[in-house]
Amino acid sequence: MTTPAHLDATLPPTPAARPPRAHRGLLVAAAALGVVGGLGQARAAVVSLTADAAAERAVAASHAAAAAWERVSAAEQAVAAADAGARPSITAAASAAKLSSVPEFRLPFAVPGQAPLVLVPDITTAYATALRLQQPIYAGGAIDGTRLAARHEAEASRAGREQTAADLRAAARLAYWHAVSGAAAVNAARARRERAARLLADTQSLYAAGMAVNADVLAAREQVASADVAVIAARTAAANALADLGSLLHLDPGDSIALADTLAGPLPSQPPPLAELEAEALARRPEPAAAAARIAALRARETVAAAPLRPALGALAELDYNRPNQRYFPASDRWRDSWSVGLSASWTLYDGGRTRANAAARRFDRRAAADDREELLRTVRLEVANDRRNLESTIAAVAAADAAHAAAVEREVAARERHAAGLAAMVEILDAEAQLAAAEQQQIDARSASWIAGAVLARALGQ
């Protein structure tokens, strides 16, 4: 069966300039309205698209995708920050202070030939410098837990980025096929307008020959007017669909879009068995991976929350260079250095139950996340099953819609022949025209639904 021309996705600029039946890759000319109309605009770019190309372009141009990349970068920096917690830290410090004057304290006696020893000098300016090295040795699992949690949170962020990209690809494919469907609807409306115009011309000829009445001419004129309304509505819907697609792809307003596909082309392939699709969805979709990473991160955060219940041990080394240096006796207004090396240990014996409560809260969060993941897996399986069923049914509906359209075409031809022979009233032709218009739209809807169902199933599979 030859697919009728109204399923072609070409959208000519005006009815008067309508080209012959189009083929793949012809310009879908919502933007050509301005170019052909001589609006004096600068030469616009023509963007050739397939459904897959639109999907990739949507990801590349989207601010949402860029934001997802930034969140991944932030998560990776959080990993670096967590790793730094296991490394030594070196701190340099310096200070200067003006002190109030105090009476000096001298020994009441002195070595013969020497001045009395000043035990407490009157130092009015103090300087201090220090270089400290700290190395955590054991923190009750807090350091390792923080590092592990940061890594799992980065995994979740990367999965979230893939989820954003998958959503954008699905949105672009759907917008693409809506644009193809809109172009086909315009062609169907124009074909209806041409049939109505021919019917009006034939009726006027019959009326002039005395073979039709004025009511027949009025009915034919009403058919033309109704077809004009349908063309306007279809053109508006098609332009809106192209605008949606262009906005999603961040195209310039003056750019035109060349769609590589038409609804007259082949249908989507039949889907594989359900078990195979479920396995693919669970393996490829980013949502289950993100959920698993969040569960692992919460398990690590639970360890961090419980860390204060365990002892902590660290090493400390410090080099001081002060004036005066309080470790020297008696104090003197001169620079002196000193150093110290040691270990520090602490263990919180009781904090009112706060640490245990925090750890319990993280544990309940982890359990809730695990339950959420199981619910997610259930919905993924159901989504795949429903989308596969929808694709099968829409493909099957195309054959029925094609048969209905073929029958409507034959009925319309037969009605015209009967009317020309004087065997049928005008109302029979009008009924046949209305049935043909409905069959054309049903065929467009069925073929469009099959591609939309395919795009929805692809998203369910994580493609």
Q: Could you characterize what this model shows?
A:
By secondary structure, the protein is α+β, with helices and mostly antiparallel strands. The chain has one domain: Outer membrane efflux proteins (OEP) (Up-down Bundle), CATH 1.20.1600.10. Helices cover 59% and strands 13% of the residues. The chain is built from nine helices and nine strands. The chain has a four-stranded antiparallel sheet with strand order 3-6-8-9, with no helix packed on it. Helix 3 packs antiparallel against helix 4 and helix 8 (354-420) runs antiparallel to helix 9 (426-460). The model is unreliable at 10-42 (pLDDT under 50).
